[in-house]
Amino acid sequence: IFSGDEATVQQKQMDWVRAKLRYESGAVIGDDEARQEAATYFPRPGDRPERVKAKEESRKQAIEQMRLAAGRAAPGGVGAPV
Predict the structure, then answer these.
(1) Domain presence at residue 79
(2) What is the pLDDT of residues 23-67, one digit of tens each?
(3) What are the φ and ψ backbone dihedral angles of 73, each rounded to 5 degrees?
(4) How many domains in the chain?
């Protein structure tokens, strides 16, 4: 059981992960897959500072890939003129 803040952080992480995985696969995301993906992109207790930084960079890259794929649909998106 998590405190209110911890539960909120975990929920936000899982929301992000499920959106990313759904974008990639279009399928329903299982809990195990989502937890593994969250551990890939978000810091966990015991992560060293360089690992935390690497995860941050990985999140930024994933966000940029999704933004580019969304094209004009993304806020500030780019793409061919309509």
Answers:
(1) no
(2) 888 777 888 989 999 999 999 999 999 999 999 999 999 999 888
(3) -70, -20
(4) 1
Owning domain of residue 48: 8-59
Nearest to 22 by CA among 62, 61, 60: 62
SS3 content of the chain, % helix, strand, coil (to 5): 70, 0, 30
In-domain check, residue 44: yes
In a domain, 72, yes or no: no
Contact 20, 37 (CB under 8 A): yes
Does residue 80 sit within a domain?
no
pTM: 0.73
Lookup: tokens for 73? 């649909």
Angle at 22 between CA 21 and CA 25, to 5 degrees: 80
Please give the Cα distance from 62 to 70 (Å, whole number).
12
